[in-house]
């Protein structure tokens, strides 16, 4: 058995090229299908970390040494969220999931930095595969539930656990496809064909009824288009802001709910969110001001639960950080974010990959304002992946934008 393991290891490190391709495919699969509950994407970041330990040990250790201060800050934040928690056993689970997610930064950064051409070559094939998958899933769900009132939405919930999971994946596909069109240097025929991808992704997101995904996608599109344009950025910004404001008016007024069944919601969306946010702010200030209530404790505690039913999450990642960590933990988190932003490579060398990372970060930050769970595996992994793309595809001092 020992000889078999040694033989497998020797084959792995002596023929790294094909294994690197597999690692890059797994990296794409993880981010494109991240919110699909029945796909085993949650273990991919750790698997990639182990693979890099075998393939690129020196590069991995160099990155770990480079980010040792940030790693210590993360561990300190997680320790505070567990030690001062009202439910320590739940907080240990939340901290463990968070740590499993953020390690996605290192595979994304190293693979993009070491193998940028291979990462770019797999960009379109895997995006096309993903959009075909979600189109097929939407058609199947519709054909199985078309006779049931609001059957498509119910089918999405039964298939993907929540319609937001489906909408998040398709919106991200639309955003990445648009980034690829804006910064890709491929043939004109490929570009014409690829225009179908963001259109299909946006259409699937709209029919899913995931309001937060549509808003986040619009903001991510506005940011990436603004980065691409050399002139007229103010006009695009004003035009995009007007479009977003008009869309939010249609959403809040209920017009979209009358046009598309998936957008119908009972009750007032805004007032419920405001009530939740106010309850969290008050509860933490009165009972857990300095250290909060602990990581992954919101759904299990009776504090800051103002509605008739128990909420699973605060529906805002920043308020979740406030609830979980209090003043001390949030200050440490702010220091961590400041250090990461200070170290961010702002000169893109591989434009398509760099702005893909930016689109992912912007998209998930916007999604986190009305949904998502901070101390889970999925949300921090998506942010870590996007930041890793930017760091791997950028240069700290010099670089030329590759279109």
TrEMBL record:
Source superkingdom: Bacteria
Transmembrane regions: 25-55, 67-86, 122-143, 163-183, 195-222, 234-251, 317-342, 348-366
Domain annotation O-antigen ligase-related: ranges: 203-333
One GO cellular component, as annotated: membrane
Record GO terms (molecular function): ligase activity
Coiled coil residues, start to end: none
Keywords: Ligase, Membrane, Transmembrane, Transmembrane helix
Keyword Ligase: yes
Bilayer disposition of the protein: Multi-pass membrane protein
Main subcellular localisation: membrane
Protein name in the entry: O-antigen ligase
Annotated organism of origin: Geothermobacter ehrlichii
């Amino acid at each position: 058995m020992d000889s078999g393991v040694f033989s497998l290891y020797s084959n792995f490190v002596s023929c790294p090229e094909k294994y690197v391709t597999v690692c890059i495919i797994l990296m794409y699969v993880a981010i494109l299908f991240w919110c699909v509950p029945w796909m085993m994407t949650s273990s991919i970041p750790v698997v990639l970390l182990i693979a890099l330990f075998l393939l690129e040990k020196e590069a991995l250790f160099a990155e770990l040494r480079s980010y040792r201060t940030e790693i210590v800050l993360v561990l300190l934040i997680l320790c505070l969220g567990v030690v001062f928690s009202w439910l320590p056993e739940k907080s240990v689970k939340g901290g463990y999931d968070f740590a499993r997610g953020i390690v996605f930064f290192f595979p994304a950064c190293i693979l993009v930095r070491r193998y940028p051409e291979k990462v770019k070559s797999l960009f379109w094939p895997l995006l096309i595969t993903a959009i075909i998958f979600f189109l097929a899933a939407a058609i199947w769900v519709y054909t199985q539930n078309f006779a049931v009132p609001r059957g498509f939405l119910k089918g999405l919930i039964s298939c993907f656990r929540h319609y937001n999971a489906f909408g998040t994946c398709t919106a991200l596909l639309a955003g990445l496809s648009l980034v690829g069109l804006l910064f890709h240097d491929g043939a004109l025929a490929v570009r014409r064909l690829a225009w179908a991808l963001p259109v299909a992704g946006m259409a699937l997101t709209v029919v899913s009824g995931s309001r937060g995904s549509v808003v986040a996608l619009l903001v991510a599109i506005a940011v990436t288009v603004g980065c691409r344009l050399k002139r007229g950025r103010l006009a695009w910004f004003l035009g995009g802001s007007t479009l977003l404001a008009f869309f939010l008016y249609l959403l809040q007024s209920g017009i979209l709910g009358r046009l598309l069944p998936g957008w119908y919601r009972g009750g007032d969306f805004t007032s419920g969110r405001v009530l939740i946010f106010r309850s969290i702010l008050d509860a933490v200030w009165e009972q857990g001001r300095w250290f909060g209530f602990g990581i992954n404790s919101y759904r299990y505690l009776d504090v800051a639960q103002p509605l008739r039913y128990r909420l699973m999450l605060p529906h805002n990642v920043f308020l979740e950080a406030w609830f979980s960590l209090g003043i001390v933990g949030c200050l440490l988190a702010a220091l961590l974010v400041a250090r990461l932003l200070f170290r961010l490579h702002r000169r893109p060398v591989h434009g398509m990959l760099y702005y893909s990372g930016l689109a992912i970060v912007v998209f998930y930050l916007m999604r986190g304002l009305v949904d998502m769970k901070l101390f889970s595996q999925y949300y921090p992994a998506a942010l870590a992946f996007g930041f890793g793309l930017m760091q791997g595809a950028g240069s700290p001092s010099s670089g030329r934008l590759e279109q």
